[in-house]
From TrEMBL, chains A, B:
GO molecular function terms noted in the UniProt entry: NAD binding; oxidoreductase activity
Keyword annotations: NAD, Oxidoreductase
Superkingdom of the source species: Bacteria
Protein name, entry field: D-2-hydroxyacid dehydrogenase
D-isomer specific 2-hydroxyacid dehydrogenase NAD-binding domain span: 105-276
Length: 311, 311
């Protein structure tokens, strides 16, 4: 009978959802943190949890065969010092809708000048000038996996032109133009630049001064991928010098963002707290349940991470 | 040769766009306001313009056969004291995209707590709590014409349940449930109530205390139809007493909204300035051009307004 270890602050919710699916032959141990006794850890062959909690337990998981993460990002499990003798699957296919809501919430917030209208209201100042519109604007997606494809679909719904920058997949029917290498050329042609890349060696500080210089002055940069992709000082300078019109950041190199970080007060920068696409137990438990059915039939699991490639 | 009178603050833009279409046999007179000499007005059989400018000229338009308005709303031309011996067509089919941008800009602004995040940022306070999501929420549309259908389509894109309240058309494939008479029952079941009704005798103060009482306490009311549909005092009371969670108003009984009106400072009320879906010359001129081709072939014009019904 396979034993599953759940590691999440919402361990109980996950346990209930998985119990309800009546998976064959599964015994479950659920914990809110990594404070798990060795005699339990060393029996479990499957772990469902957050990379931050799993990492510390890796040495004690004597029978480990499969880790399903609750997040899309798995970089904490990819450090070269850590074992790789198990199958690692991440959560995929469940964040697209939420990410699209976040991205388009901020795109429309910007185009329709919601904050400016709020300020005009406070001054009792009626101003009937036209706002902008998303139609015919260009969105550039850095990364066109399942999240990128969903953002692209929403962009097409609003009549936008979609450019995708990718080294691998280019299967989304909603991307009008694919770019593969020249990031500067890519940046020149977009009104909105959205980073969705995972944290890999190739994406470290990919968004640097040269990219922010290349963007149109009216452009908005949105980061829902990973903070490591951004050169923070270059972004801060671009916003202070009005080289771009604004930025929206959900992710940061260090989270929570330290109090002393200049991003808290950088002009035209809107920050959120890694909340763009939360891992919702009802979504993620489905990913696990489907994968467990494959696991017991010895089929290839969905959403396997390549330890070398990093995603 | 038919003579066209254009009445708009963007008269020149409309003239250029229509000239560019090289319409057969059309002579154009373009004015920024209603200050048109009688000897010009009394030759023109077609008028393209805003109802507010056309109304005052109606008595001098001796040869009038057709009025195409630049707006969807035509109530100023429907007063019983005014002539009705011409064909009145309004602008339709061009506002749906812009209205959907506006409505979903504010829906996402609310669900994703953009303003709250802005306030947290100002306090340098990291708060990783989950925000809401549009998925599985219910939107109730008062009016399901071409604008309502577009809003419904966007709602389905975001995974919402769509209820439509209508006395006439019910042809949108994106409406899940239609209601026809019980407005209170309709209001009970929605998270977002969006008024898109035109200004007609039937819609006067339709949204009164009984409707705001029926809405869930978490509901948001959005008015992109006409201000006359709302009992202002009842809405103000509903917001002050937190009977609903918020309101977004683009239209008002009197516009510009008078400085002394309580809506400027009512809690949880977000106002804009009749800017949700501006009449863009490139869109509206297409409506006119297509209709002109019908006109000279003596075909029925698109988007005819029924003077009795009011839309």
């Amino acid at each position: 009978m396979p034993k599953l270890l759940i590691l999440s602050d919402r361990a109980e919710q996950y346990e209930n959802l998985i119990q309800a699916a009546k998976l064959p032959n599964l015994e479950i141990f659920a914990f809110k943190n990594a404070d798990v006794k060795a005699k339990i850890a060393n029996q479990c062959e499957i772990v469902l949890g957050y990379p931050s909690l799993i990492r510390d337990l890796l040495p004690s998981l004597a029978k480990l065969r499969w880790v399903q993460t609750l997040s899309a990002g798995v970089e904490l499990l990819l450090l070269p010092s850590l074992r790789r003798d198990y199958v690692l699957t991440n959560a995929r296919g469940v964040f697209g809708e939420l990410m699209a809501e976040y991205v388009f919430g901020y795109l429309l917030f910007h185009e329709r000048q919601i904050f400016k209208h709020h300020q005009l209201q406070a001054k009792k100042s009626w101003d009937g000038s036209d706002t902008g519109s998303l139609r015919d604007k260009t969105i550039g997606l850095l990364g066109v996996g399942s999240i990128g494809a969903h953002v692209a679909k929403t962009a097409k719904h609003f009549g936008m032109i979609v450019h995708g920058y990718t080294r691998s997949s280019q299967s989304s029917p909603d991307v009008d133009v694919y770019h593969h290498d020249d990031l500067i050329e890519f940046a020149c042609g977009v009104d909105y630049l959205v980073n969705i890349f995972p944290n890999t060696p190739e994406t470290q500080k990919l968004l640097d001064a040269s990219v922010f210089d290349a963007l149109p002055k009216t452009a908005i940069f949105i980061n829902v991928g990973r903070g490591s992709a951004v050169d923070d000082e270059a972004l801060q300078a671009a916003l202070e010098q009005e080289k771009i019109a604004g930025a929206v950041l959900d992710v940061f190199d260090k989270e929570p963002l330290p109090k002393e970080h200049p991003f808290w007060t950088t002009p035209n920068l809107w920050i959120t707290f890694h909340t763009a696409a939360p891992s919702l137990p009802k979504d993620i438990s489905q990913v696990f349940i489907e994968n467990y059915h494959r696991y017991i039939k010895d089929e290839a699991l969905n959403y396997q991470v390549d330890f070398e490639r990093g995603y």
